[in-house]
Design brief:
It is built from 4 helices and 5 strands, in the order βααββαββα. By secondary structure, it is of the alpha+beta class. The protein has one domain. It has a 3-stranded antiparallel beta sheet. It has a two-stranded antiparallel sheet with strand order 4-5. The relative contact order is 0.16. The structure holds zinc ion. The site of zinc ion has 8 residues, from loops.
Length: 88
């Protein structure tokens, strides 16, 4: 699938993906999220953000939309199961 090249402002991206503007600015600052300069505006390509937000669950291998970059499991159920497996 071709990545979505639609560009949007940080504010639009935050709204669309329900991610705090501050979080997006942090990702841009530390280079995780590439930006496109359009005149005086800093724009984000939708596809780049989508890629960053999709993770693979460490337990079931399911692809999921991460609420933050530290999320490792697709659901609370998987996280709890992983914990249980580790302690057995
Ligand atoms: Zn899972």
């Amino acid at each position: 699938m071709k990545p979505d090249e639609t560009i949007m402002t940080v504010e639009q991206a935050a709204e669309m993906f329900k991610v705090p503007v501050l979080t997006l600015r942090e990702w841009i600052f530390n280079g995780r999220l590439p930006v496109i300069h359009s005149g005086r505006n800093v724009m984000i390509a939708r596809g780049a953000l989508e890629t960053l937000l999709v993770g693979t669950c460490e337990l079931c291998g399911e692809r999921f939309r991460r609420p933050n970059l530290r999320a490792r499991f697709c659901s609370t159920k998987c996280r709890q199961r992983a914990h249980r497996l580790k302690s057995e």
